[in-house]
Design brief:
It holds the Pfam family NfeD. By secondary structure, the protein is an alpha+beta fold. Helices cover about 45% and strands about 20% of the residues. The chain folds into 2 domains: about 70 residues, no CATH class; about 55 residues, OB fold (Dihydrolipoamide Acetyltransferase, E2P) (Beta Barrel). A 5-stranded mixed β-barrel has the order 1-2-3-5-4. The longest helix is centred in the middle third of the chain and has 26 residues.
Length: about 160
């Protein structure tokens, strides 16, 4: 019966981690599953609690930093970016008017739906813009001519 309680706790912690994505609760979930294993082997409740505490602590101290280090973006780690990270910062050609609601741009030969990063700006076909961020399949773009922009969007308050 103790093993079932630990398994249920482990599953609840794993599900809660899905909503937090901090890699914190999952480490306690691993500890709960380890305690369930100890319970299945017939260990007393005190030993189960000790297994839970030790495995959770070791997971937090040893495993979590390794996972976080490997999950850093390519830009943060200095590696060559790929996928969406490679698109952010590149220039795009406006094909259909881009405003706060809709638009179409061409990035490295691919068509992307786009919206203006600054909701007050509108970009007409033929203009060059810079991809600031990608949300889903939509590129958020900003005017490419930095000298006339006055400031970059990252420095805006």
């Amino acid at each position: 019966m103790d093993a079932v309680v630990w398994i249920v706790l482990g599953v609840l912690l794993a599900v809660a981690e899905i909503f937090t994505t901090t890699l914190f609760l999952i480490m306690f979930g691993v500890g709960a599953f380890a305690a369930a294993g100890a319970a299945a082997l017939g260990a007393p409740v005190a030993v189960q609690a000790l297994v839970f505490a030790v495995v959770s602590a070791l997971s937090l101290v040893v495993v979590r930093p390794v996972i976080r280090r490997h999950s850093r973006s390519a830009l943060e780690s200095g590696e060559q970016p790929f996928g969406v990270e490679a698109i952010e910062g590149s220039t795009a050609l406006v094909l259909e008017r881009v405003d706060a609601e809709q638009g179409l741009v061409k990035i490295d030969g691919e068509l992307w739906s786009a919206r203006s990063y600054d909701t007050t700006q509108v970009y007409d076909p033929g203009q060059r813009v810079r991809v600031i961020k990608v949300r889903g399949a939509t590129a958020l773009v900003w005017q490419d001519d930095v000298s006339s922009a006055g400031e970059l969007p990252e420095s805006r308050g």
